[in-house]
Amino acid sequence: MADTDELRKRVRSLIRVAPGAQRVFAEEIGLDETKLSKSLGGTRRFTAQELVRIAEQSGVTVNWLLNGSDDAVTVTAVPAVSTRSSSAPDAEAQPEMRRRILETAWELIATRGYHNVRIADIAQACGTSTGTIHYYFDTKHDVLNESLRRNVKLAFDRQVAELHTIDDARERLLRLVELQLPTDGLLRDEWSVWLQVWNEVALTPGLRSLYWDSYDRWYRTVAMTIRLGQEQGVFREQDPDDAAAQLTALIDGLGIRVLCGTPGTSVSVMRRHLRDFIAHTIIKGSG
Questions:
Q1: What is the pTM of this model?
Q2: What b/e sequence results for 40-75 when a residue is b if at least 16 CB atoms lie within 10 Å of its CB, and e otherwise?
Q3: 90-135, pLDDT tens digit by residue?
Q4: Which candidate in 55, 149, 154, 222 could, as Cys together with 244 as Cys, close a disulfide (CB 3.0–4.6 Å)?
Q5: 144, 197 in Cβ contact below 8 A?
Q6: How far apart (Å, rounded) are the C-alpha atoms in residues 277 and 165?
Q7: Contacts of 149 (CB under 8 A, 6+ apart)
């Protein structure tokens, strides 16, 4: 699927009208300015990774970039309103400091652990004051909530960017699972934040509604992909919700074992178990 004029138009709208603004924008998203110019001119396609970086930097969603709306029907389930970060809907209204604080806090929570991160640590890492942090986030729980919302947005953006060109349900489901593996880097950090959210939710019932809404998006994405495969005649006829519940539970359990360093586990072992499960219980005629 070629990049559309509408996509290029939306990306251009995110670039400030000022001398050198396109060069600055290219630097911000980690893309060579020449490649950005070619993509904006229609002679080069934006990669999925570039679309995710554009969305993250600008405070929009990949769904908006591709389809013109955060709520447009797309290849994955759309996040509930409650799980959307208040910094995300409008790029022009997004405070740069708030975005930087959230990204920094998210990284610290992922690498150090929620209970090992203080507001003072976030302020120090951002080169600002604790008062500035509290201007945007009243409590550390608010930071954790927004970190969960950021996890939801990162996963949603990545899935839409990677899957919107894949029509075959089998290929889409396998790619969806691949995008959920706790490989080193961003995905492992996302898993780390999820683990800490799970711990806090178990201890603090008041946090559960946000968690439920967040997890529901992932569950519905798996279920709708399985349902698509049934419509295409490549997946077994079974309750797609039951199949999604089994697959997501297996992903959760295996992912936790990988992050905890359980002997005999690894990302490659997790991948093999998940592919075996899909082959034997979801794909038609494979078991």
A1: 0.91
A2: beeeeebebebbbbbbbbbbbbbbbbbbeebeeebb
A3: 444 457 888 899 999 999 999 999 999 999 999 999 999 999 999 9
A4: 222
A5: yes
A6: 25
A7: 83, 84, 85, 210, 214
